């Protein structure tokens, strides 16, 4: 352990001082060159690299990240993507290693649209899981992860954005586009190109290897890229690994005595554990596109996209030994049943995701000016599977741990238990879509018009497998159906007794659940005059859901579905430029989310018996309306942008109850219950240091980015609801300030960034809920057990380009080894029927201490 720590710190120190040592002389050298050769120069504000095209005329709440930007920002996963973007958070999946998408402007999960090449993420598996309220649920409710090495563009839009991504973009959208063959070539003459990336991050011991090869010859072109990642849990602060605890547990020999032993930090389990659960992570991704240019104007290509991830976790925030402590346990009868103490109680979570896509792509790019400037048509088939497995075991002899142990049918072995719940969400999609663009003149004004549309046919299925087995000895005859096998025994320990072995398996399935979506949209961007620019976009979506379960499936909580939704969305942008360097921008947009197929079958599907009086009723589509106003001012030495937004959310769906009409009691189901408004401010200032004072080195820049979101108004549900809890505003991110001091040499051979992040603690008022239970109202219940304090951290990143082919990137994060907890991590303790962290020892949520990243990229 000491040897590993020594080498990690040694390498980290080398990276830190190398980055600083490289940057400071370089800055001085560039400064001296500037003083020795005074020239009349024209200062142009902004990066020297090619910038992505603007989405609309306002640019409000818009972030575009190209493949080059993703590499420069050292993005390795979803958490890195928005690490330095205030007001955007990542939803962790309750200690399962996976995520549930992004949070923007007070909403999260399925209310922030995520698409990859037009495919939306899978619906979150939401249901009322009464069995595991105290800990992680049967399913992690996670979404499939994305391999960021495959992306050439990530387009983030904060605020209602359903014209861009359709259903789900209430608080914003994240649209991702995969690479094409041309993205691997630096010029038009090369016929062969390749890329190799090798990387390592110390905070989770994650290794990445990515290999790509692209070629083109005559009319043919194509590429193949393969990426593999292996890693572990994100480490807590290093100080926590130096601690241990004395643990009390029952003697595994069954004497009934309490033993006491000292356990190291990584061995401790239960409420006193201070470090995260051990995690093994593995992912693979293969992306390939091959095509032929039939003519200079027509291209036809094949797309193959395959990815899979596996997360394997051992739950150690619950005791992995039999104890008399009054704390949650893996098995409820750990204390009262003395037969089980000879075995190790363990709990394992396994999440497996797979995504397989095959598609055809047609591109039309006319050589001469015709009725179209460009057209793209896609025909795709996708097969998506998200599997969650929860295994509760008490079958490996203490203190051994075996995730594959089984309960044996042997009269000489007793006290073993095994309970496994496996949930599989399958989704198959067939998608056809098109996108066309034409620049034209209308009434002497230049218009940029786009027309798009498509259809998606989807089939869903949720399969639940459960297994329960045990062996035990009872003094009396077991009840009928209590045991699969039973026999009388006469043993020295029990005397005359009865041996019982039980092996029970159950399988429930929703059967096929289907949906059809048709959409069509039109957008236009034009200059009305030299002072006014406009962008207009509209979209119509028609979605239908239907399901016809069998009579047996109806007995297990499923029911017929036949629902349809028609939604219109819009996005209007106005940019007023009274002078060339100053603009006032206004954006008005809308969003919607149709109820997912999971919500429409209700919270009690795939149960062992019908939950009468809890049938799911019809649901409305959720709506959001967003307004933003802001200004940009660009000067030779700086750029300032400030904006204010106000978003109105209506008919948001949640778990609640109404008085039952046919009986005494309540009718629990999903309802359109929440209505509220959020607002906030985004501000960014960028300074070009050399333009301010030419004694400073050219290429030195400073920026500060500030973002804050707040609840503006909450509307309480109407009196028709007998039980509910107000919307949880844990998705509202606290105030965050990100400051960056960056330097890039004039030839872009090397550079560095010093990034300082400050976050205010979560406002506790946003965690107070208003509840109504059985008609009685109360205020003061909390959505989460934890409060976070303000925190700050400093990161140092940099790059060195050895030549045009080889680039080394490195970073030291949490440079000063500060100990803190981010709100994104802390909100995993929020109360919900989905998977959550239930420990009272919140040190396991602490951010990692000083850690480093290093990447080597080779292109040819």
From TrEMBL:
- List the GO cellular component terms: cell outer membrane
Please provide the record's keywords in A-Z order. Cell outer membrane, Membrane, Signal, TonB box, Transmembrane, Transmembrane beta strand, Transport
Q: Where in this protein would one find the motif TonB box, according to its record?
A: 41-47
Coiled-coil stretches noted in the UniProt entry, renumbered to this chain = none
User: Which GO BP terms sit in this record?
Assistant: siderophore transmembrane transport
Domain TonB-dependent receptor plug positions: 66-172
Query: Family per UniProt?
Result: Belongs to the TonB-dependent receptor family.
Which protein are we looking at?
A: Uncharacterized protein
Source organism (scientific name): Mergibacter septicus
Q: What is the lineage of its organism?
A: Bacteria, Pseudomonadati, Pseudomonadota, Gammaproteobacteria, Pasteurellales
């Amino acid at each position: 352990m000491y040897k590993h720590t020594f080498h990690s710190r040694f390498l980290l120190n080398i990276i830190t001082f190398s980055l600083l040592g490289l940057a400071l002389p370089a800055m001085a050298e560039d400064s001296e060159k500037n003083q020795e050769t005074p020239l009349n120069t024209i200062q142009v504000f902004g990066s020297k690299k090619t910038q992505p095209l603007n989405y609309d005329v306002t640019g409000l709440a818009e972030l575009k990240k190209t493949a080059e930007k993703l590499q420069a920002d050292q993005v390795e996963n979803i958490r890195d993507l928005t690490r330095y973007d205030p007001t955007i958070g990542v939803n962790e999946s309750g200690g399962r290693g996976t995520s549930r998408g992004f949070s923007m402007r007070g909403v999260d999960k399925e209310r922030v649209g995520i698409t990859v090449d037009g495919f939306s993420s899978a619906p979150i598996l939401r249901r009322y899981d009464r069995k595991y309220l105290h800990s992680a649920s049967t399913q992690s409710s996670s979404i499939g992860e994305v391999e960021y090495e495959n992306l050439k563009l990530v387009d983030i839009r904060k605020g209602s954005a359903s014209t861009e991504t359709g259903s789900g973009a209430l608080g914003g959208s994240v649209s991702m586009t995969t690479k094409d063959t041309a993205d691997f070539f630096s010029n038009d003459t090369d016929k062969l190109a390749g890329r190799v990336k090798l990387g390592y991050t110390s905070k989770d011991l994650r290794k990445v290897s990515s290999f790509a090869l692209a070629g083109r010859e005559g009319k043919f072109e194509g590429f193949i890229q393969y990426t593999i990642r292996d890693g572990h849990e994100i480490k807590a602060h290093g100080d926590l690994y130096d601690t241990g605890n004395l643990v009390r547990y029952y003697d595994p020999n069954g004497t009934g005595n309490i033993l006491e032993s000292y356990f190291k930090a990584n061995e401790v389990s239960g409420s006193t554990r201070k470090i995260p659960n051990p995690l093994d992570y593995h992912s693979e991704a293969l992306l390939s596109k091959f095509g032929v240019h039939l003519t200079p104007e027509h291209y036809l290509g094949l797309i193959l996209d395959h990815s899979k991830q596996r997360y394997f976790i051992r739950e150690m925030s619950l005791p992995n030994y039999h104890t008399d402590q009054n704390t949650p346990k893996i098995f409820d009868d750990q204390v009262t049943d003395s037969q089980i103490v000879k075995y190790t109680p363990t709990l394992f979570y396994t999440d497996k995701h797979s995504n397989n896509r095959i598609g055809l792509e047609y591109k039309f790019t006319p050589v001469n000016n015709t009725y179209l400037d460009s057209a793209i048509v896609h025909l795709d088939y996708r097969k998506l599977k998200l599997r969650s497995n929860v295994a509760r075991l008490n079958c490996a002899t203490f203190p051994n741990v075996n995730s594959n142990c089984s309960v044996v049918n042997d009269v000489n072995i007793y006290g073993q238990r095994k309970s496994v719940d496996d949930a599989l969400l399958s989704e198959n999609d067939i998608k056809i879509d098109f996108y066309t663009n034409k620049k034209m003149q209308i009434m002497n004004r230049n218009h940029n018009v786009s027309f798009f549309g498509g259809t998606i046919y989807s089939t869903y299925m949720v399969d639940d497998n459960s297994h329960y087995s045990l062996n035990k000895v009872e003094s009396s005859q077991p009840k009928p159906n209590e045991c699969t096998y039973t026999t009388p025994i006469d043993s020295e320990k029990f005397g005359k007794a009865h041996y019982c072995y039980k092996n029970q398996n159950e399988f429930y399935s929703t059967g096929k659940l289907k949906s059809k979506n048709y959409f069509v949209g039109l957008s236009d961007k034009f200059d009305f005059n030299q002072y006014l620019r406009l962008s207009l976009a509209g979209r119509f979506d028609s979605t239908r859901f239907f399901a016809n379960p069998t009579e047996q499936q109806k007995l297990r909580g499923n029911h017929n579905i036949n629902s349809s939704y028609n939604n219109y969305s819009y996005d209007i942008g106005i940019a007023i430029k009274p002078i060339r360097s100053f603009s006032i921008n206004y954006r008005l947009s809308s969003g919607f989310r149709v109820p997912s197929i999971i919500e429409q079958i209700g919270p009690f599907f795939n149960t062992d018996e019908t939950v009468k009086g809890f049938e799911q009723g019809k649901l409305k589509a959720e709506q959001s309306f967003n307004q933003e106003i802001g200004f940009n001012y660009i000067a030779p030495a700086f750029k300032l942008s400030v904006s204010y937004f106000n978003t109105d959310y209506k008919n948001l769906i949640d778990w609640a109850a109404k008085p039952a009409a046919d009986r005494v009691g309540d009718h629990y189901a999903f309802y359109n219950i929440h209505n509220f408004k959020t607002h906030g401010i985004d501000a960014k200032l960028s300074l070009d240091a050399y333009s301010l004072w030419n004694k400073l080195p050219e290429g030195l820049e400073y920026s500060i980015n500030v973002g804050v979101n707040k609840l503006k108004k909450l509307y309480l549900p109407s009196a028709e609801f007998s039980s509910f809890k107000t919307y949880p505003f844990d998705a509202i991110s606290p105030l965050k300030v990100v400051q960056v001091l960056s330097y890039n040499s004039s030839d872009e051979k090397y550079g560095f960034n010093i990034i300082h992040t400050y976050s205010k603690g979560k406002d506790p008022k946003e965690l107070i809920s208003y509840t109504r239970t059985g008609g009685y109202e109360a205020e003061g219940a909390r959505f989460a057990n934890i409060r976070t304090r303000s925190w700050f951290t400093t990161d140092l990143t940099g790059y060195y380009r050895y030549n045009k082919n080889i680039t080394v990137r490195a970073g030291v994060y949490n440079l000063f080894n500060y100990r803190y907890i981010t709100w994104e991590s802390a909100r995993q303790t929020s109360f919900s029927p989905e998977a959550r962290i239930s420990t009272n020892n919140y040190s396991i949520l602490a951010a990692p201490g000083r850690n480093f990243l290093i990447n080597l990229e080779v292109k040819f």
